[in-house]
Description:
By secondary structure, the chain is mainly β. The protein has helices at residues 10-13, 104-114, and strands spanning 15-21, 30-31, 33-34, 38-39, 42-43, 49-58, 64-72, 81-85, 98-103, 120-127, 133-141. It has a single domain, classed as Jelly Rolls (Sandwich), CATH 2.60.120. It is built from 2 helices and 11 strands.
Amino acid sequence: MVTAVATEKLFANNMIEMFNHAPADAATEQSVKQGATTTTWRAMRDYEGFAVLAEPTLLVGTGLTELSIYAAEDSAGTNATEIKTTGAILANALGDYAVLEVSAEDIQQIGKAAGYDFTHVVAYADCQHDDDELGVTYIRFATSHATSGLTATYIS
Length: 156
């Protein structure tokens, strides 16, 4: 039976977004992109933390070899600094994945120690081959301003 109840807990308290990351170069770790060129820096204002999940979706090489979270002072990536990393991994089969999580407090402490005021985060991914592709999910969690529709229910 379908219910008319429209309770929203997870999606009203967390901003969840998904991306297809297609690296342009396998020689270096790269920020996760939306499409071919738009880096996915996300503001951390009003959130208690950030998590990223990544999974190979197309394998030409050996897939995901490192996943990291970076922070910066703005959406342009000013003073981008690695905050946390998986280190070397081998997510080399469909169904393999990696996850990372960091608190807003940790981001601020690392920034202050380096003399920066970090306000934005992004995931960086390193793939073994430039034709490897990843499905990447961002979760900015525990917002201080819960609202219905914070996470979009449909994007086309």
